[in-house]
From TrEMBL:
Belongs to the class-I pyridine nucleotide-disulfide oxidoreductase family. Its cofactor is FAD. PROSITE patterns: PYRIDINE_REDOX_1. FAD binds at residues 126, 192, 221-223, 400, 406-409. This is Dihydrolipoyl dehydrogenase. It comes from Triticum aestivum (Wheat). Disulfide bonds join 117-122.
Amino acid sequence: MHSVSISASASASAIASGGARSKAAAGRRPGEIRFCGLRGDALACASLRASHAAAATRRAVLRAAASANGAAGSGDGFDYDLVIIGAGVGGHGAALHAVEEGLKTAIIEGDVVGGTCVNRGCVPSKALLAVSGRMRELHDEHHMKSLGLQVSSTGYDRQAVADHANNLASKIRSNLTNSMKAMGVDILTGFGKIVGKQKVRYGKVGFPEKEITAKNIIIATGSVPFVPKGIEIDGKTVFTSDHALKLESVPDWIAIVGSGYIGLEFSDVYTALGSEVTFVEALDQLMPGFDPEIAKLAQRVLINTRKIDYHTGVFASKITPAKDGKPVLIELIDAKTKEHKETLEVDAALIATGRAPFTSGLGLENINVVTQRGFIPVDERMQVTDADGNVVPNLFCIGDANGKLMLAHAASAQGISVVEQISGRDHILNHLSIPAACFTHPEISMVGLTEPQAREKADNEGFEVSVVKTSFKANTKALAENEGDGIAKMIYRPDTGEILGVHILGLHAADLIHEASNAIALGTRLQELKLAVHAHPTLSEVLDELFKAAKVNSGVSHSVNEPVAA
């Protein structure tokens, strides 16, 4: 983790072009630095010490901002204080925070509100995973008998399952739309394009375009499934996660190309519904993005015990959809030598090889911005940089389009961070404090560095690393649920008590990780966390065990005297 040190004068200079302070920000100095998630008592975060009276004032400001947002202009000769291109989770989070700060805000969406996460990603997939979790529990006769339960038969209605996912997406999409309308955000329909400094043109295909001006612009266009060359998508037998979430069929045998988050979650769904799965992974081990120890344990629990086999160290060089009575054909080549290894014949293939930024057609050439592998280059404040490495004034990019961390909640956090800046408060987001989760059964979650990453950093910077672990088998609540398969692992610095990373495999791991992520964000040290109280019996005691097991060098101060890594 890199420490951050920024002078007030430098921060004021960095945001000089970011717009006037809002009424809601009137109580703070223009150059005041705010670090995401650093301890309020150490860095004087006013929001953490706000009184009830200040909260009442804030609510009044919000009501005024919402009503004023439909006014004729921003008051500075612009149509809007902020225009956001893209109404996904990132754009939505930025829009609401902007209105809270008194900024006249518009959001442009060419597809549907909610973006990938709500419509084709994390939201509908969780609906399918909820079904797979119930199916696994009902099918586990030993687990049921151990709880004294008897289940005579289980089954599912494929269309009803698909409808559950679709209905959830529709509900959340409606909620997002209504929340923006209620706050006074102008929702503009069409595809947005930057046509010059602080100018955006938008419109639907076949209809006249409109041009608006904005004091600040945020690009939040997200991403699309990445499909490697040689793979033919027909949407029926060879498809991406976009198609899979519709659950139009449950194939007897499906190959999943890629064993990351997307591939793992869909393997959980398909095997629970009766499919056999074959993973095709280009790297030498499954789950390459996870902490190696966690990945090894996860493979034992999530793959080896299920109807799943796998091929590692191979590329799917060519995939042909099923047609004329022939199955899907997958040609595998060695990842290193590129020599042909074998050809798989399966009923379907899901391409889960990651995502690519959706940044074409944005008019970036009009402002001398060149993408890097499709990603829009930004600095640590999400300010877009041009081909010469210079910051483009008043232009920001958040979320998947910048490639810093392709997670929906990271996009939202980046958007809020940008709004803080254009409201007159410098703000740097600590990406190492942002958690991630894989919603398999059991779940996997993580925050910060993996053990190899932490040890490499320690070698380079000259400090010691320690690791502590605890098993879910030692947790009363997990045992009460008969869900003892799981482990939690923490990597930390014994010389300072700083948490470097936490990784969890087990029941509700996705919910448990936030205590660790907030500790990293707030700079809370293990010396303090050891004294925290957790209700008994709860799964939260898994983290409590980690904190108490950590051995911090004697004499280390409990307080945080400097910012942690950003």
